[in-house]
Amino acid sequence: FTGNAAEGEKVFVQCKTCHVKEAGQNRVGPSLAGIVGRAAGSVEGFNYSPANKNSGITWTPEKLFQYLEKPARVVPGTKMVFAGLPDAQKRADLIAYLQQP
Ligand code: HEM
Questions:
Q1: Ligand 1: does its nearest atom lie under 6 Å from the Cβ of 80?
Q2: Which residues, listed in sequence order, are joined to residue 58 by a DSSP beta bridge?
Q3: What are the structural domains of the chain?
Q4: Bridge-partner residues for 39, per DSSP?
Q5: Could you tell me if the CB of 17 is within 6 A of ligand 1?
Q6: Which atom of ligand 1 lies at the shortest distance from residue 15's CA?
Q7: Residue 98 region by backbone torsions, left for phi larger than 0, else alpha for psi between -120 and 50, else beta
């Protein structure tokens, strides 16, 4: 899949109540700086659920694409209260945005 980062920035508005894309700031959710390629549950100082922490996931673009459709299906027991993004293009755009430094 191919995404458009500028479009993804608009989709990210839905994530902003809980996440920032910059490093060093955790809100309700952990900072998403460098999320693409990172091991799940690895932001220092963030209190993850055991489900997320011990998922063994590496957040590749493909894994994020699956997760963001329906987070609780990929990480059962996650404390991320977000239903998901059914629109595949929006997920692809969002991942392109998250991949930007
Ligand atoms: C965890 C992405 C929306 C709260 C995560 C993780 C990702 C992610 C990739 C795993 C992080 C890691 O393992 O380090 C997103 C994206 C969103 C979104 C792209 C928008 C489309 C939200 C919203 C909330 C939220 C709206 C709050 C209502 C959380 C929490 C966790 C989390 C609390 C930790 C989950 C746990 O420890 O079980 N998110 N998220 N997220 N997110 Fe989100």
A1: yes
A2: 39
A3: 5-99 (1.10.760.10)
A4: 58
A5: yes
A6: 20
A7: alpha
